[in-house]
Amino acid sequence: MLALPWLFEFWALEHQLPPEGDWRTWVILGGRGAGKTRAGAEWVRAQVEGARPLDAGRCHRIALVGETIDQVREVMVFGESGIMACSPPDRRPEWQATRKRLIWPNGATAQAFSAHDPEGLRGPQFDGAWVDELAKWKKARETWDMLQFGLRLGEDPRVCVTTTPRNVGMLKELLAAGSTVVTSAPTEANRAYLAEGFLEEVRARYAGTRLGRQELDGVLVDEAEGALWTPAMLERCRADVIPELDRIVVAVDPPMTGHGGSDECGIVVAGAVTRGPVQDWRAWVLADASVSSASPAGWAKAAIRAMERWGAERLVAEVNQGGDLVEQVIRQVDPLVPFRSVHASRGKVARAEPVAALYEQGRVHHARGLGALEDQMCAMTARGFEGRGSPDRVDALVWALTELIVEPAAKWRRPQVRAV
Predict the structure, then answer these.
(1) Are residues 330 and 263 in the same domain?
(2) Radius of gyration (C-alpha) of the chain in whole angstroms
(3) 375: domain CATH number?
(4) Contact, 246 vs 311, CB < 8 A?
(5) Are both 178 and 271 inside the same structural domain?
(6) Do 173 and 294 belong together in one domain?
């Protein structure tokens, strides 16, 4: 009877128990408070603990990866549903703060890592991992890739991923992988352990909304309501073969500031075939060279490198925020760069709509590897941008296609006034 509170299999909800069969990654999708953290913590226990406190378990070296080290410590380790709270006294691990790791009585260890520092996973090796809130990570792909290279110990290294679903490319790719199994549950499933009145309040406020479907129902919402672009539309425009292009440009949406907390600098490379009638003109989005947390000189160099790599004929940059300073920064890197400044006189949605119309007409094609850009595109709606932060990549895309197709086509159609 004394052991009963620690027997999770007895108390667990169905979505909190790992599926049977041969899998590499177990993804637990759930709404807020659905019991994801408890499931992850108990999974770690099941991997490292043996039949008796000093017996070896299935895993000996575990990676604990969260958005930040603080979140690993406060949620995954010391949280109310974390590893320490779930462990019986005779099996409770010790937290070594200076080494950012847990060590169990049987010698098993779990090392904490931050998704803000993917390179921190370069070198260590593991036979298992618990990944928390992957859909929130800004460097999800880089961190996930580094973790995969480190999962090289034991006979069958596995990963448990606990996350609220969000429309991000890394999560969607993971869910589509053949080696992934998924369990899911809404917040409602865990109502017995939630504060009285919480569900009534959040349901009243968010039921039927996109945010409610995501945060309460644990549903992966592929697109925003009223989105200008949809995943299906973007999938149809995928292109593996790029023809000879008549023009190539690089468009830049500079961040307001250059410090570490500023927005990304959107940098998009696109080209077009403009031979023949205007209705036959087509564009190809070639690359997303956007950079994060770069100084003005840093993003200017990234834009110039993109021009050189793709043989672009012009650099187009929005100057609403920086004015003449934007061109000055770019010319400090390359004084002779062909440059055109553009000024946004209309809102983001108004500028984006003519470009979205080109997609609807099937006149824009995408190279592969544009996941981050496409995620932002699917969050741009007729009401505005519904994603996180600023749609810098989408802004750069709009400027590029406006330069290549929208403005030239408008001039081509404009009736000429003859002198008399």
Answers:
(1) yes
(2) 25
(3) 3.30.420.240
(4) no
(5) no
(6) no
Output the CA torsion 382→385→387→389 (10° steps): 180
Amino acid of residue 49? E
Same domain, 323 and 363: yes
pLDDT of residue 215: 75
pLDDT in tens, 152-201: 999 999 999 999 888 788 898 899 899 999 998 878 777 777 776 777 77
Q: Which helix (H) or strand (E) holds 66?
A: strand 61-66
Strands 61-66, 128-132: pairing is: parallel
Task: Give the range with max mean pLDDT: 310-324, 330-344, 358-372, 391-405.
Answer: 391-405
Tally of domains within the chain = 2
| Identity of the amino acid at 323 | G
Task: From 175, 171, 164, select the one nearest 214 (Cα to Cα).
Answer: 164
Q: Answer yes or no: are the C-beta atoms of 217 and 186 closer than 8 Å.
A: yes
Range from 22-36, 86-100, 398-412 that averages highest in pLDDT? 86-100
- Gap between the Cα atoms of 124 and 112, Å rounded: 11
Single-letter amino acid code for the residue at 163: T
Segments forming the whole domain that contains residue 347: 231-413
Say if CB 101 and CB 76 are below 8 A apart: no
Write out pLDDT tens, residues 277-290. 888 999 999 999 99
Query: Are 246 and 192 members of one domain?
Result: no
| Segment 196-202 long-range contacts (CB within 8 Å, at least 24 positions apart) | 198/33, 202/32
The tokens for 318 are 């929005």
Output the CA torsion sign for 327, 330, 334, 339: negative
Q: Which two tokens stand for residue 172?
A: 């969607």
Could you tell me if 246 and 286 lie in one domain? yes
One-letter amino acid at 314 equals R
Most confident of the ranges 17-21, 74-78, 225-229, 369-373:
74-78
**What average pLDDT does the segment 338-347 reach?**
88
Enumerate residues 6+ apart whose C-beta is below 8 A from 313: 247, 248, 249, 338
Identify whether the C-beta of residue 169 lies closer than 8 Å to the C-beta of residue 36.
Answer: no
Do 224 and 352 touch, CB atoms closer than 8 A?
Answer: no
